[in-house]
Amino acid sequence: MSWIASIQKLKEKGVIGMNYRNIELIGRYNSRDKYPLVDNKLITKKIAQEAGIAVTELYAKIEWQSELNRLHDILAPYENFAIKPVHGSGGKGIIVITHREGDVFIKANGESMTLLQIRDHISNILSGLYSLGGRYDVAIIEKLVVFDPVFQNFSYEGVPDIRIIVYKGYPLMAMMRCPTHQSNGKANLHQGAVGVGIDIGTGRALNAVMHNHPIQTHPNTKHDFAELQIPQWEKILHIAATCYDMTGLGYLGTDIVFDENFGPLLLELNARPGLAIQIANDKGERHRVERVDKEKEGKSVEERVRFSMDVLSKI
């Protein structure tokens, strides 16, 4: 009886599972010919800039193993940067260098890497160690996001990001992923970051979980997540909603970061977003999906954002 009661409770909350997500959302609304728009970070940057969306600055790209012979010269102009695989997912293969001492590179958690270690890491990226499907990949070197002190109480050794699920162009559900010492400064829930459910109407924190267990305060900073308010919230929702128009994907995850100097920046997109956002919000997506399905097509970005803030936030 307890198992049946649990299933019924999840149904009442509108929680969706993998099958519903894969068949009714991704399978129905995400055409596979559009996947390269989000699976390739270089293409994502290009179409985002064409759509007027700010992105993290690209310093360099490395496509061939032979280019690693020039790695010292490629990195020479930059004091800090991030290295990423173009076709990576889930934060795999990403290295964040906050500063350097000659050819010794210091990561956010204080650990150091030599030039040779960075070369080996990039070589692994090119070989496909971190890419979707293990295919040969490209490494990109990006400008490091400057941590915005507005979030200093809710992040440790790294930059938090905001994940917004967008359905048919409507911001559906949101969370902030806050790095911890356990997650090595990465905004990755599987590695120990905190997932904070965000009110889609106001940008205020609703609920927080770590490894799927409820918590109230950040494990390192000890600050209460109830105090978290994301600034420029409507602008962030506008960015997320615009990503539907620029990709044509009906169900996607948008990841946005805050830079102290430039404000919200699009980090990356995901055509197969996970379901942990429901745990962070202590609420399921299904009831909001069903409400969006009742709306007529052809509404503007502004209209969709306003609908999400005024109507979906109350479901």
* Secondary-structure element string: HHHHEHEEEEHEEEEEEHEEHHH
- Taking Cα atoms only, what radius of gyration do you get, to the nearest Å? 20 Å
Largest sheet properties? 7 strands, antiparallel
In DSSP terms (H or I, runs of 4 or more residues), the helix count works out at 10
Give the CATH level 1 class of the largest domain.
Alpha Beta
What fraction, in percent, of the residue positions are helical? Answer: 25-40%
CATH topology heading of the largest domain: D-amino Acid Aminotransferase, Chain A, domain 1
| Rough outline | globular
Derived structural class: alpha+beta
* Name of the CATH superfamily of the largest domain: ATP-grasp fold, B domain
Average pLDDT, to the nearest integer? 94
Total individual domains: 2
What percentage of amino acids are in beta strands? 15-25%
Q: Can you list the strand order of the major beta sheet?
A: 11-10-9-8-7-12-13
Oligomer: single chain
Give the second-level CATH assignment, the architecture of the largest domain: 2-Layer Sandwich
Low-confidence stretches: none
Find the count of extended strands (DSSP E, 2+ residues).
13
Distance between the termini: 28 Å
